[in-house]
């Protein structure tokens, strides 16, 4: 509603501003051309845009002209003084993408005896004249040109000039577009084809025609005009009558040329004053959007190069990730599918095998703690490096078999993952750590005697299961304190079974000597691993747990270096208790201590066949059976060096109720040892 009232008021306002009186004068004001368009004569491509009322003389079409005239002429007699003033705001907008390339051709303010300029040419003729009318007095044209193309034909000074044209495009006077800055006191250049609105004032007073320019932001007309020239209007317009208006043209170069507002006053007096334009009411200059540029070959090449770079980077990332998470998978592994972990999953679970999560480092590899997402629990991941792929199939089969072994005192093996030169084994994480930490590190509390015996029973039971309980005999091969893990309740778990084979290379056959010094039975180097060598290692472990001393301690004096020898020595001296761990503070059961130490010595007997089986060890530990009688002087007991050839054939013979391997000396024909037959009785 308010808008309509405003519209009505504006119409009244405009109407009152147009005054004609054929004798006294003519004046009008257009603050935009949305009103009183009926007085404007348009031709060519010229048009008024509604709403907004901007007068567009040319658009982006080539070789066009546009004219706009006020359709009433002003008359001047031959003798009376006349004057006129005009002020208009124009904008010459280059075609998008033509930056620097210019545009054409220009706009002119025109006084013409006729509104019909249809015979005129576009381009450098600016829609004013043609080749035949140019320069002819019959043309009856006076123009002020704002020329944006330098035309040599008309001796143009540059491609950004203002000129006064009398019946000819060869300007009588011209100057580069500039304005006088009152503030700076000097002339400043002005770019006509900038797209920014420009004020133009043209005054004709006392035969002097002057042209003044300024950018829109300057609101006062500068005192110094750009051009001044005496003009005899009567000579140009003998008829004493002229129309006022605008003309503009395009050539092969185009620009959008607009008139935003126009005020004009003609009077038959020596001066003329002017109704000023209301700048705030002028329409806005449309700035056409940049059309997507025709892609230059250079741009295409650049884009292609960029695309290649991006692809290379992405490819690199892909290859890097593939390499980072690469695994080795073979068809035969299908059957182990559920046990197979993806490397990525393990990588994420361990925080990229962060050294903060490293639990330990052994000769065979490193162990990392990890946490499976979504409450999958904590895991321990052992990274084993290996040289050859051969034998891998068999090994993985073994690993998987071990994964299927179930015993309450075995650390559960959850699965595996294979990469080039690397095998990863995933087992449950044991929060208690390993037994050796409790025995030798001060940051863990010492274990009580009953805890130690319980752990020994746990491990014995697990080892017994490996030797006899599973569908096939499984050798541990590397029993030692650091492979015995504890949970939060200090229950013992045997870990790492079968892993010792993995030392260095898979080619390590069952006969290769692997293990840890102090836990290795002497016959290992010759006859290889067997359940007997596991028993030997377990014996060493028993002594270690009871005495709180490593089976082999190179820092001790020579005679005490071997724990086995030293314990035996204590026994020989009649004080087995001296061998006990001082940290126990004497709190232990004497009978149990003797049993454990003697059983440890029996298990570490250098004569393999004299060692008990794990089944028997379990029986002894649980006191279901008494130890056989033997003394520190029994051959093979408490000995660490294989000086055995000379040991006389021994016949400590015990009766046994439970069946035990009845080994005769002849069965050990492959052994370098002289076989001893110890028959174990249950003593019950
Ligand atoms: C001319 O301008 C109009 C919009 O003003 C546009 O649609 C057209 O594509 C332009 N033509 C050229 C040749 O730039
Ligand atoms: C030039 O224009 C005049 C009118 O101004 C016309 O009579 C004449 O034929 C035109 N000449 C050409 C070559 O177009
Ligand atoms: C102003 O324009 C003139 C003529 O085109 C030129 O010689 C001069 O270098 C220009 N000055 C500036 C400051 O651009
Ligand atoms: C203007 O031109 C007319 C006609 O050519 C001439 O009669 C008159 O004297 C001129 N006026 C001046 C001031 O030169
Ligand atoms: C036109 O100019 C004359 C002379 O200066 C002046 O008397 C008249 O008021 C002006 N007309 C308008 C509409 O400004």
Automatic annotation (TrEMBL):
Localization per record: Cell membrane
SUPFAM superfamilies: Concanavalin A-like lectins/glucanases, Protein kinase-like (PK-like)
UniProt topology in membrane: Single-pass type I membrane protein
Domain Protein kinase: residue ranges: 353-627
Catalytic activities: L-seryl-[protein] + ATP = O-phospho-L-seryl-[protein] + ADP + H(+); L-threonyl-[protein] + ATP = O-phospho-L-threonyl-[protein] + ADP + H(+)
Example of a GO cellular component annotation carried by this entry: plasma membrane
Coiled coil feature spans: none
Alphabetized PANTHER family for the sequence: PTHR27007
Main location: membrane
Pfam families: Lectin_legB (PF00139), PK_Tyr_Ser-Thr (PF07714)
UniProt name for this protein: non-specific serine/threonine protein kinase
Keywords annotated in UniProt: ATP-binding, Cell membrane, Glycoprotein, Kinase, Lectin, Membrane, Nucleotide-binding, Receptor, Serine/threonine-protein kinase, Signal, Transferase, Transmembrane, Transmembrane helix
Source organism phylogeny: Eukaryota, Viridiplantae, Streptophyta, Embryophyta, Tracheophyta
Top-level EC class as recorded in UniProt: transferase
Transmembrane regions: 298-320
GO molecular function: ATP binding; carbohydrate binding; protein serine/threonine kinase activity
The gene coding this protein: LOC108827509
Signal sequence coordinates: 1-23
EC numbers, comma separated: 2.7.11.1
């Amino acid at each position: 509603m308010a808008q309509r009232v405003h519209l009505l008021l504006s119409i009244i306002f405009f109407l009152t501003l147009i005054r004609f009186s054929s004798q006294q004068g003519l004046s009008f004001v257009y603050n935009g051309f949305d009103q009183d368009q009926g007085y404007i004569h348009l031709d060519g491509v010229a048009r008024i845009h509604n709403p907004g009322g901007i007068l567009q003389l040319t658009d982006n079409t080539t070789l066009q002209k546009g004219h706009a005239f006020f359709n009433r002429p002003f008359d001047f007699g031959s003798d009376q003084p006349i004057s006129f003033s005009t002020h208009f705001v124009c904008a010459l907008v280059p075609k998008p993408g033509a930056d620097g390339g210019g545009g054409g051709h220009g706009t002119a303010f025109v006084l013409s005896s006729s509104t019909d300029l249809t015979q005129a040419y576009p381009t450098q003729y600016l829609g004013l004249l043609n080749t035949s009318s140019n320069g002819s007095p019959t043309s009856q044209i006076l123009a002020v040109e704002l020329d944006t193309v330098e035309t040599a034909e008309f001796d143009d000074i540059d491609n950004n000039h203002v000129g006064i044209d009398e019946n000819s495009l060869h300007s009588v006077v011209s100057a580069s577009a500039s304005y006088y800055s009152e503030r700076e006191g000097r002339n400043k250049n002005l770019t006509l084809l900038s797209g920014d609105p420009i004020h133009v004032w043209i005054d004709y007073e006392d035969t002097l025609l002057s042209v003044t320019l300024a950018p829109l932001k300057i609101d006062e007309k500068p005192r110094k005009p750009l051009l001044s020239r005496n003009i005899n209007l009567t000579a140009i317009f003998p008829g004493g009558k002229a129309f006022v208006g605008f003309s503009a043209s395009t050539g092969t170069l185009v620009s959008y040329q607009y008139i935003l507002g126009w005020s004009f006053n003609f009077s038959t007096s020596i001066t003329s004053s002017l109704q000023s334009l209301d700048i705030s009411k002028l329409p806005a200059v449309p700035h056409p959007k940049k059309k997507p540029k025709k892609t230059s070959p250079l741009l295409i090449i650049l884009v292609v190069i960029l695309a290649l770079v991006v692809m290379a980077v992405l490819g690199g990332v892909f290859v890097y990730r593939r390499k980072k998470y690469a695994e080795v998978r073979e068809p035969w592994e299908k059957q182990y599918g559920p046990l197979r972990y993806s490397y990525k999953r393990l990588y994420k679970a361990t925080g990229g095998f962060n050294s903060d999560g490293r639990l330990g480092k052994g000769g065979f590899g490193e162990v990392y703690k990890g946490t499976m997402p979504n409450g999958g629990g904590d895991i321990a991941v052992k990274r084993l490096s290996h040289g050859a792929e051969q034998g891998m199939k068999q090994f993985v089969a073994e690993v998987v078999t071990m994964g299927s072994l179930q015993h309450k005192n075995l650390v559960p093996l959850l699965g595996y993952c294979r990469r080039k030169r690397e095998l990863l084994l995933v087992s449950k994480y044991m929060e208690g750590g390993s037994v050796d930490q409790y025995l030798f590190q001060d940051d863990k509390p010492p274990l009580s005697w009953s805890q130690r015996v319980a752990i020994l029973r746990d491990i014995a039971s697990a080892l017994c299961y490996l030797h006899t309980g599973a569908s096939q005999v499984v050798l541990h091969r590397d029993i030692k304190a650091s492979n015995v893990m504890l949970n939060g309740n200090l229950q013992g778990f045997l870990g790492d079974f079968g892993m010792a084979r993995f030392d260095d290379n898979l080619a390590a056959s069952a006969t290769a000597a692997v293990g840890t010094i102090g836990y290795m039975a002497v016959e290992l180097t010759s006859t290889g691993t067997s359940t007997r060598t596991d028993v030997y290692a377990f014996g060493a472990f028993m002594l270690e747990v009871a005495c709180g001393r490593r089976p082999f301690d190179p820092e001790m004096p020579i005679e005490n270096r071997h724990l086995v020898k030293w314990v035996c020595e204590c026994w020989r001296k009649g004080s087995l208790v001296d061998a006990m761990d001082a940290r126990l503070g004497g709190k232990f059961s004497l009978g149990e201590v003797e049993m454990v130490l003697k059983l440890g010595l029996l298990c570490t007997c250098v004569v393999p066949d004299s060692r008990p089986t794990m089944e028997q060890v379990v029986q002894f530990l649980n006191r279901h059976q008494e130890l056989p009688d033997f003394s520190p002087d029994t051959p093979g007991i408490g000995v660490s060096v294989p000086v055995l050839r000379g040991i006389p054939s021994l016949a400590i013979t015990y009766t046994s109720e439970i069946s035990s391997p009845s080994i005769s000396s002849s069965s050990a024909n492959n052994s370098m040892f002289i076989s001893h037959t110890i028959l174990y009785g249950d003593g019950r």
